[in-house]
Amino acid sequence: MKQWLKSFAKEYGVFILVMVLFFGFFAPLTTIGSSMNETLIDGDILMLRRTQNVERGDIVQFQSNIKIDEYHLSQLNWFQRLTVGENMNLVKRVIALPGEHVEMIQGEVFINGNKLEEAYISHKATEIYLDFGVVPDDTLLVLGDNRPVSKDSRSKDVGFIDQDSVKGRITFRFWPISRIGNVHS
User: How large is the average pLDDT for residues 18-37?
Assistant: First the structure.
């Protein structure tokens, strides 16, 4: 028995250690829905780098206050099912940081009075005017790239998100093969 254990440790010990370290810093996830189209498409398989250190333009996953339903639970990959709580994890883009004043005027975002250039937008928001006010300390304002369908900081269900709720930054797309590569902010 002792010999078998030594043999197993030699054969698989390094592999297990590498996997534990890898999943400590990274996590695979699958995109569900169309709120981030065209940047991320429903079914994209992505790599999340675990960090709460994010900047404007980063695409992040965070734990929302929205309870997860059976449909969304059924759409998660095996790793997401192991790590999901009772609330949904959402993927959105960081638009504004603490202390910044944010307005949306005819679908365009303004931060402290300056228009935010957003080349990644597939469809503009439909709001004529929306004043988010100043982003509170320790929170972020997040929006989906496909604004007409995205449930994001404009929604009472999401609002400003706590920086502590950020699980990490989306860094890489594995699938589909035709779109494999870094996910650019």
Answer: 68
Specify whether the CB–CB gap between 111 and 131 falls below 8 A.
no
As annotated, the active-site residues are 35, 92
The CA–CA distances, whole Å, from 131 to 4, 98, 108, 127 equal: 66, 15, 12, 10
CATH number given to 2-174: 2.10.109.10
What single letter denotes the amino acid at residue 39? T
What does the alpha-carbon distance between residue 109 and residue 55 come to, in Å, rounded to a whole number?
A: 16
Q: Which of 108, 106, 109 is nearest to 95 (CA)?
A: 109
* Residue 102 near residue 141 (C-beta atoms within 8 A): yes
Tell me the β-bridge partners of 30: 45
Where residue 166 falls among pLDDT bands split at 50, 70, 90?
Answer: very high
- pLDDT value at position 33? 77
Which residues make beta-bridge pairs with 35?
none
